[in-house]
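To start, one record:
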Amino acid sequence: MAKVKLKKKRPLNGWIISATATGCLLIVVLALCLGLQERLDTDNQTRNDHIVASLQSKRLTALKATARIKSSLVAPLPRQSVLAAQTDNLAPVVWRIPTDQPVVFLGIDDGWTQSLEILDWLEGHSLPFSIFVTNDAAKRNYEYFMRLQSADMTIENHTLRHPVMTKLNLEQQKAEICATSDIYASVFGRRPTLFRPPYGKYNADTQQAAATCGMKAIIMWQARVEAGSMQFQKSDHLRSGDIVLMHFRSSTVADLEAFVKEVENQHLKIGRLEDWLR
């Protein structure tokens, strides 16, 4: 009978030594991995800190530049009010401000387009514009216009629903103007004092309705900005006392840049209508 060759058993202590060595090797590899990950995390954090610091520095530089722009553009307060008194209970119609001071005025109308790009520009520059917003547009997001108010702009009256005022009777016109002022007094904490009629259409009833609703003046314009371009009615450039019309549209930021450029080119300043029409 053939002999069966038995496999020699590995000593138990050999298994223990092998397992211990393997475990130690795993521990070393794990420690190296953890150390590498910690170093990577530190490097990433350092890189992120540099990015944040760079962004903060750029933002601070931009804010300083904006502050310089604002200080160079904003007109001093007027020496005296120039608003004519109401006659026959009719609100006066103002096309421009009679002044020899180098100052112009901007009113932005409607409020249908409420983009973050426009909001960022207006908040960033914080210039004393008048915002003639219609309530049907404003009520979509009153907070948007509250932020503009907080950025040194003034909310004024542009009717409830943006109708052609000359197609309405006196009572209907009063309803459009007075109701808007009531809402804005509640929402914005200030009752409007200036009124701009939609499409620039007004008549004697509009003037009477505006006066009844507490408007000091009906505001028209002598120049406008549209599609990034200035348009003039009486000359080929902005003049002292001009009131400029603009709208909340997709081109508003380009319009604002065009307006500021023209103001600087003509060595003018930007005034607040409400400071002059008291």
